[in-house]
Write a structure and sequence with these properties.
Blueprint lengths: L1 H39 L7 E5 L4 H6 L1 E13 L4 E15 L2 E13 L1 H6 L5 E4 L5 E9 L2 E9 L2 E3 L2 E4 L2 E5 L2 E2 L9 E4 L8 E7 L2 E13 L28
Antiparallel strand pairs: 1-2, 2-3, 3-4, 4-14, 5-6, 6-7, 7-10, 8-9, 9-12, 10-11, 13-14
């Protein structure tokens, strides 16, 4: 009787210890991921990272993670900064210097202040449904005038493009092409096969993204998250991209 009780108690202790070790390993890896994201995306604060799925240690050993959720604030997205980016990855498996992801989805926002700061002297603001407004000083008819135009943000290659349309000068329509140039923001590499949608709102340029069976190269997503214990030169960095 006592022997049976002994083994029952011992089994409980072992299970508890395994749970503690598993959770401890998960917390360590999450901490490394936060540090790598902060460093790679030049964020002022460490992001929120949650790596779910139990048990965790077998995932670490097999180098395939069930679910990874990140919430990043004020991130370097290329020539422009993203106010926030939230992403969920499922089935993240190492492939060479990158990773294969079963699915990836998320949302984000670029503030108009950030868009203006990277627009080469032009101001960028909300322009109504699906549009942004670009305004600034231009030379027109031999004089310096205030011009504005609306445009729909879109992704072209690895750039966020705003092409001015419906131009006006000092509040009067001026059908002059090229008066206000295209505003282009070079972005970090966007994984092939990812679908991105952009929706300007009063709060900022909102975007969403999703994709399945994506290959994330060392240049776009995996290393910054430090999901694998690799040498510093092998590290890859992870991040979702703005959208059309």
């Amino acid at each position: 009787m006592r022997r049976g009780r002994f083994w029952a108690i011992a089994a409980v202790v072992v299970v508890v210890l395994l749970l503690v070790v598993d959770r401890g390993g998960q917390m360590v890896v999450e901490g490394l991921v936060k540090e790598q994201i902060q460093k790679s995306l030049a964020t002022p604060d460490k992001p929120s990272v949650d790596m779910s799925g139990f048990p965790f240690l077998p995932q670490l050993i097999s180098q395939k993670f069930d679910d990874v959720t990140v919430d990043i604030r004020d991130a370097d997205a290329g020539q422009i900064r993203a106010e926030r980016v939230s992403a969920v990855l499922t089935g993240v498996k190492r492939e060479g210097a990158g990773a294969q992801v079963d699915s990836l989805s998320g949302t984000g926002r670029i503030s108009y202040a950030a868009a203006t700061a990277a627009a080469g002297g032009y101001a960028v603001s909300y322009g109504g449904k699906n549009l942004v407004k670009i305004s600034g000083k231009v030379r027109f008819a031999g004089q310096t005038r205030t011009a504005s135009a609306s445009g729909k943000p879109r992704i072209v290659g690895n750039e966020l493009l705003i092409r001015p349309e419906q131009v006006s000068v000092d509040g009067t329509a001026a059908p002059v092409s090229g008066l206000i140039p295209d505003i282009r923001y070079p972005l970090r590499e966007i994984p092939q096969g990812m679908t991105i949608k952009i929706n300007p709102t009063e709060a900022g340029i909102e975007f969403s993204f999703d994709g399945e069976n994506l290959m994330l190269s060392s240049a776009d997503i995996t290393a910054a998250w430090g999901l694998w214990s690799v040498s510093p030169d092998e590290t890859v960095y992870a991040r979702p991209q703005p959208a059309t």
